[in-house]
Amino acid sequence: MKRHNAAELPVPASFGGVQDEKGKVEKVGGGGGRQGKGSCCSRLWFMVVLSATVTMLVRYYYYDSSVGQGVAGGVVRVDSVARHSYHRKVNSVDRGGGRPSFSGSFSSPPNDDSKKPLADSGGGGPLLSGHSPSPVDASTKKPEPLQDGGGNGSVAAAVDHKWLSDSSTSTTESDGDQPAAAHPFARALAAADNKGDRCGGRYIYVQDLPPRFNTDMVKNCAALFPWTDKCEFTANGGFGLQMSSAGGVFQETGWYNTDQYTMDIIFHERIKRYECLTVDPSLAAAVYVPFYAGLELERHLWGFNVTKRDAMALEAVDIITARPEWRFMGGRDHFFTAGRTTWDFRRLADGDSDWGSKLFLLPAIQNMTALVAESSPWHLNDAAIPFPTAFHPASDEAVFIWQDKIRRLERPWLFTFAGAPRPGITKSIRNELIAQCRASSVCSLMQCVDGPINKCGSPASYMKLFQSSTFCLQPQGDSYTRKSAFDCMLAGCIPVFFHPGTAYVQYTWHLPKNHADYSVYISEDDVRNNVSIEERLRQIPPATVERMRETVINLVPVVVYAQPSSKLETVKDAFDLAIDTIIGKVTKLRRAIVEGQAEEEKLEMYSWKYPLLREGQKVEDPHEWDPLFAFV
Ligand SMILES: *[C@@H]1O[C@H](CO)[C@@H](O)[C@H](O)[C@H]1NC(C)=O
Ligand SMILES: *[C@@H]1O[C@H](CO)[C@@H](O)[C@H](O)[C@H]1NC(C)=O
Ligand SMILES: *[C@@H]1O[C@H](CO)[C@@H](O)[C@H](O)[C@H]1NC(C)=O
Ligand SMILES: *[C@@H]1O[C@H](CO)[C@@H](O)[C@H](O)[C@H]1NC(C)=O
């Protein structure tokens, strides 16, 4: 496949982001960069002088339910945009070529007032400190299984099983006789086949990174995020502050004012308590890199030059790639979280006014899986997992009680919309949605307004709204996705999507393949052509509505992140599903390598389409959504 260079970058035809008429992306960020477009300036709330370098931070305030922040000053990232190049993923080490032409744009720092740091429970004491010495040095030549405790060949005696309740059997026998033994992950595959090993095939190795790559960011949240009250949101292991039941909107416990961008912390807290950790990377089904890529970028996203924005990412990559386990598979068994949208990590060029970091473009990261809140339809190295919502149950029971509650609710409204218009995004259909909602007697509108009183920012207010409605409209946010879609489902409200990029091609690990099972799709073009949303929704037979709602309610567990301390007993949550999928992916790849199968070559440009393919379908076959993800 042809490799595109920056000069001939294709532009996606349909992205709803902010590009001006010429498709040029607005300049942003950097030292004092600011958007000159009216759309943005109407939202310009104030500027602060951040530092002695007199860096101006332009801040745009959206009060939108897609923001998970209940305090005054909820803000959403704004106007991200895409233009992409695409190139083959396959093993390419390719720094310059295939340069992505996406540009994001200006996002706001997440909050205004600098608040007092709160005691944070999760920050200081990484359980990882329990690890035995990090596996050897980078000088190891052969990609052989590590011997943590010293010892011979394939003997697994070195495996530290102190976290493993039931793994005493397994994996020690006769690797040398098996054909797979030539591969550094042979023991991991053998473990997967060992029925006697409860954790067989599920071991995760957590790399030992210096705390400045992770927990220090939480511990020092006040200093690290000086212009925000991020500490409120990094508290409680990334869940944020606990909320009261808000007059019965929530349950008494398990509800938090969770920021949409704290997935890095939440994930790490869960991994620390994952039941099948190993200190032996050669036994691991996957390697977790505890780099808080999203949080790290967030604090350098505004007002810092590209050198600064990339510095820690480059450092992390140097460390990771120097480790012996990197050579097992060139990092293709490694994963990490970058709890923001993918566009923040795919900087187009290296000017200080270009948006974001270039983390995802680094050759090493091309081989890894980055878990993000929104993935790229044109790249294979990221995968979207649900935005965190306000609910963090501590038991199956808590989930069931919530499901019962939302199943029983009276829903007086047929549909609902909570959000703000996007005057700066020419293709946005939000004005049409707001107009239709206003004109309908069965639609409840929560129009979010700019200003310090953030009407939509309170989880209690928008969750109450979603609980009173059968359907909720989920147009694109500032980029394809919205946290609101998950709030909506959590409330047992059936989402109505207008672009497949908002959910269907994103959260394919978590949501049903058949989108009609749990959601309604009305194309943006239909909305622009004045299709009546109310009529469309009324046409759905009540029995079908019931069935869809039941599906949505059954999805509650997979769109929540449970408490790390107790997790759920039998039910899988968003974290569990993500781990299962990553492990499945790595294991499949390993088995293919062992069996000498040619690896399936995937085209980056179709990365959105692979999960949608039905039996026998080829990726080149036409799809009704081709135009929505096409390049012009
Ligand atoms: C390693 O193997 C050698 C010979 O194969 C043996 O003499 C030695 O005791 C073994 N060491 C350990 C730690 O098993
Ligand atoms: C980038 O900014 C940092 C401070 O954040 C400064 O020390 C450094 O010199 C800058 N680099 C360039 C190339 O401007
Ligand atoms: C990515 O993986 C491939 C295949 O394992 C390997 O050849 C390549 O060196 C890896 N890239 C990096 C940067 O390690
Ligand atoms: C949709 O309706 C609006 C207001 O009724 C009207 O101005 C517009 O021309 C209509 N558009 C189409 C495509 O019919």
TrEMBL record:
* Signal sequence region: none
Q: Where is this region: Disordered?
A: 89-155
Q: Which family does it belong to?
A: Belongs to the glycosyltransferase 47 family.
Its domain of life reads: Eukaryota
Q: Name one GO molecular function term.
A: glycosyltransferase activity
Domain spans labelled Exostosin GT47: 199-537
Matching entries from InterPro entries are given as:
Exostosin (IPR004263), Exostosin_GT47 (IPR040911)
UniProt feature, compositional bias: Low complexity: 100-110
Protein's UniProt name: Exostosin GT47 domain-containing protein
Provide the species name: Zizania palustris
Asked if the keyword Transmembrane helix belongs to this entry, the reply reads yes
Q: Which GO terms describe its cellular component?
A: Golgi membrane
Where in or outside the cell?
Answer: Golgi apparatus membrane
How this chain sits in the membrane, per its record, is:
Single-pass type II membrane protein
Pfam families (UniProt xref)? Exostosin_GT47
Q: Which UniProt keywords apply?
A: Glycosyltransferase, Golgi apparatus, Membrane, Signal-anchor, Transferase, Transmembrane, Transmembrane helix
Primary residence = Golgi
Transmembrane residues, as ranges?
44-62
